[in-house]
Write a structure and sequence with these properties.
Length: 260
């Protein structure tokens, strides 16, 4: 491996430590879903997070993505997240899929509410999830897009008011609540205006890679910037790693072209 690769790995580790000590780092996230992480990506993240005793959560490709759940078992992840749960049956399938691999072994379970259909079905979804699921994440990006209305955006008042309404239902069913989806500095300013609701009912706020305690995300200067910096370092690290690991193939390709 190149010296640059190990330098980037060190920066990643240092950033994780900083997020843990100063910004209330709850977990690191990876996705087989929208992000399309490879098994190798997950191996490296597991190595980094395990070294610093930081939980690693994996968002699988669907409520019943058995292959992903089996990979999660091999990797030793600490939590599983199901995207796009839109019905109580989706919760049943998610729980059943996990139990078919993990048996009675406890693992953190979270479901994403991120469509208008999920909102319509939320009472039934939460009734099934109560006592079996640990957390609900409201994915503001997909949720806003699911209404097919250009005026409804992640930071719009419609979504914020909807989050407030849903938060009561989620907490009353003994589940924790995470907010995610296109979190920007503008989002943080808007969340601050809803500080009473956030403080009382939202336990964490997430970027694509980092889940921070909501109190720290809102009160600590540069919390969002530092969370996004980890993702910047991570992408640099991935690109450098893939460039190095593909070096033999690139060299072989150059030789083949010389012969043709």
């Amino acid at each position: 491996m190149s010296a640059k690769f190990f330098s980037l790995e060190k920066k990643l580790s240092s950033q994780l430590v900083k997020l843990k000590k100063e910004f209330g780092l709850f977990a690191v996230k990876a996705e087989f879903e929208a992000e399309g992480s490879s098994f190798r990506d997950l191996l490296w993240l597991r190595r980094l997070t395990a070294k610093e005793n930081i939980p690693l959560f994996l968002k699988i490709g669907g409520v019943e993505a058995l292959r992903d759940i089996k990979d999660a078992l091999d990797l030793g992840v600490d939590g599983l997240i199901s995207p796009m749960v839109e019905s109580p049956f989706g919760v049943v399938k998610f729980i059943g899929a996990i139990e078919s691999v993990y048996g009675r072994q406890k693992i953190f379970k979270s479901i994403n509410i991120e469509s208008c259909e999920a909102v319509r079905q939320v009472d039934k979804i939460l009734k099934v999830a109560r006592g079996k699921i640990d957390n609900v994440t409201i994915g503001r990006t997909d949720l806003s897009q699911s209404y097919f209305n250009s005026k409804i955006e992640p930071d719009s008042s419609f979504i914020l008011e909807l989050i407030e309404e849903l938060s009561y239902k989620i907490i009353s069913n003994s589940l924790s609540l995470t907010l995610g989806g296109s979190v920007t500095s503008q989002s943080i300013r808007l969340f601050t205006k809803y500080h009473k609701m956030i403080k009382a009912r939202v336990s964490s706020i997430e970027t694509r890679k980092i889940v921070l305690a909501s109190e720290k995300m809102l009160s600590k200067k540069n919390a969002l910037k530092e969370a996004l910096r980890f993702e910047e370092y991570y992408l640099d690290f991935k690109l450098e790693r893939e460039a190095w690991l593909s070096k033999p193939e690139r060299e072989r390709l150059a030789k083949l072209k010389e012969r043709l």
